[in-house]
Design a protein that fits this description.
The chain is mostly helical. Helices cover 82% and strands 0% of the residues. The N and C termini lie far apart (143 Å).
Length: 92
């Protein structure tokens, strides 16, 4: 009796050099992308920190200008009162 030739799938455990090189290229691309992403995130963090610092500085300048505006408004009202008192005193 002849041996029955049945088709069985067998896993070939050999890895060719081409597959190994492809895996190394893939890993290096992933690693390079990760490093590039980290660098961009650092740059983004620096930009956000700078933006927040500039916003804080602008807020302080606006508060200072607001206070100066109020001060000038009070001075102007005082001058107007004095002028009004002077005019009414002169008219009498």
């Amino acid at each position: 009796m002849a041996k029955e030739n049945t088709a069985h799938w067998r896993l070939d455990r050999r890895i060719s050099l081409a597959v190994l090189l492809q895996l190394m290229v893939l890993v290096s691309l992933i690693l390079g992308s990760w490093v590039n992403l980290q660098r961009r995130l650092d740059s983004f963090q620096h930009d956000v920190t700078t933006l927040l610092a500039n916003q804080k500085e602008s807020q302080q300048k606006l508060e200072r200008l607001s206070n100066q505006g109020l001060s000038c408004e009070y001075r102007l009202q005082a001058v107007e009162r004095r002028l009004g008192d002077t005019v009414t005193t002169t008219i009498r």
